[in-house]
Amino acid sequence: DLKEVAPEPVELSASMGPSTSTPSENRHGSVLRAIGILNKVQTYSVLPFSAFSCLHILGVVITPAIFGTEAGDDMIGLGREIYHVPLVEYGILGSAAVHVISGVSLNLARKYYRYLKYGKSNIKKRQSGDDKLIVPGKEEDIEVRDADKGLGGITSVLGAGSRVSFTSRYLGLSPLAFSGYFFLALLTGHVYYERVSPIVVDGDSSFVDLSYVAYSLQKTFLKTYFGLNTLVLVGSYHMLVGMNRILRRFTLKQRKMTYKAIFVLATLGAVSLWRISQIDVLPAMAAKFHSYVP
Which of 71, 135, 144, 284 is most deeply buried (CB count within 10 A of its CB)? Predict the structure, then answer.
């Protein structure tokens, strides 16, 4: 049978009532969403430039060091058939520009988020994450996920644990970010001398080959040799460490492999430049190159 009962008040849960989010919490969410978008843009925008870099390194670093300068010139000529097509070249430049702009924006967005979360007094206090041991007893599987530690340093490889990098402690930049800005400065100068200057003088860069690099080495050996080796070293570090983060390769074993790859590329670069410096540059070509690099 139905019975009459006394009415009782019903309490609405917070989820059923109006939103109680504060403006500060809304800003946190908006910044986090922006960070997520910028992170994806930065990650995928670099793919065209990475493909070009692999092809270019093959022509100017690996091939001359192993197979000689003539083979290197042949590989450079083959590469130009691909990346000197206007649409492809604009795509490579656009890829690099978007990667840099999104990277700077991402760094600023993360700083702003830390400011919102910790306040002005703690904005420079970057929290260093702990290393993660995947399988107990297997030190090779220790992961260093903290961007401020980069590859963990030489001490990590030697088994003494990873350290927060110098650039993070004193510049507020992770090793990956710092190497990116450094690489950008070196790459800008390289593009100017190898591509822009010849176009300004001749309207194209068809005369530029390894003999142009040889001319620069013979003219100012220490400056050119040190500068180009630094470009190879910093570029190798930035691209390989960046690829590690994209593929989530954080273990000690994987970091050791990265150190070895950087060392191999730097060594090949040094050998390649030495072999290139031995090229006999014809007087007529030397005069031409002098107009590019007075």
Answer: 144
